Amino acid sequence: MEQVRVELGQRGYTISVGAGMLAGSLEAGLAALQPTSVHVVTHPSLWRTWSGSLGPTVSGSEPILLRPGERHKHLGAAASILGELAERRADRQCVVVALGGGVVGDVAGFAAACYLRGVRFVQAPTTLLAQVDASAGGKTGVDLRQGKNLVGAFHQPSAVVIDTQTLATLPARHMRSGMAEILKHGIIADEAYFEFVTSRRTGRWRPLPDWLEPVIAQSCRIKAHVVSQDEREGGLRAILNFGHTVGHAIETLTGYRQFSHGEAVAVGMVAAALVSERVCGAPAGLVRRVVDGLTAYGLPWSLPESCSDDEIVRVAMHDKKTSGGILRMALTPGVGHATVMPVDALVLLDALRCHRALRPSGNVHG
Ligand SMILES: NC(=O)c1ccc[n+]([C@@H]2O[C@H](COP(=O)([O-])OP(=O)(O)OC[C@H]3O[C@@H](n4cnc5c(N)ncnc54)[C@H](O)[C@@H]3O)[C@@H](O)[C@H]2O)c1
Ligand SMILES: [Zn+2]
Question: Is 43 a catalytic residue?
């Protein structure tokens, strides 16, 4: 088992990564917190699969069940958790356990941030994306009809327990989605990690736990390092948004149906690499490396025909990351490094035009 510390003073916590350690680590983590009551939030199918393997404290509790899917990540879902906690007369010393993907983690974390002005919560992520990205860092929240993640709170978990065995039942598409964020971590912070992840892939991809454990731990280390320096995204943390400006735009424009989050980020990383070539001196081979890395994991990288470049720029300009009408994008001057810079809409437009002309080899024609 590997352990990664998120250094945030009194709000610091440990991320544990291992195989087959869910029950043991949850029991140990909860025992250390000495809660007056424990409330697990999950989806019905996950509860059916995992309720018997969570250790007596969690397995013996009555779950609070949420409907799966991004369309259920709304205030109503958070309200149902809050209502249930109040019905159960949960007090300030209670602990909420989020067992599931990023949707469960974000909603349960948000409810924990609001209930009695903040109670503790433990993340037990069960998707690769949540294990490498969503579960650590303390961003919690829900979507509004007007946009994704528009309501939320910074609320750090008390512990994160990552059991790679939970991924055994995860559909391949969701595994790929998590790989996009893993590749992102390599691009923004660790070239050797990017090389390791992109070079070791062989044949039909279903990674083994002994491959996943160090990979997940390294992604957690990268995220923990960034978050511990900039908890509330005053500056540096924005590098984690690499690929997310255009990614969020195409998610929004395609109604969250055509692309999973990771797939949209994959496409957005190619756009970000093209912008990086234009504004921060990224080397010419960067785009090809990014495209090849995404292709190795069966991730999409082309812009969808259904969204025009103008629409993508328009939506990107309304992103949360825009301030005072200036678009700021996470960019890379070269694999392993990242920066955040203002980007002129015309530069983004030009990058998108080149993006559409890319061929599978990553060469630009036109
Ligand atoms: N808070 C953050 O910092 C942060 C970072 C990245 C993403 N997010 C959020 O995370 C969400 C996406 O998370 P996600 O990709 O995990 O999606 P998700 O939570 O919707 O999970 C995807 C699907 O997989 C199912 N599932 C979960 N674990 C499973 C397992 N082990 N076996 C089989 N099925 C399983 C879920 O029920 C769901 O249907 C988005 O809402 C995004 O905004 C948050
Ligand atoms: Zn993301």
Answer: no
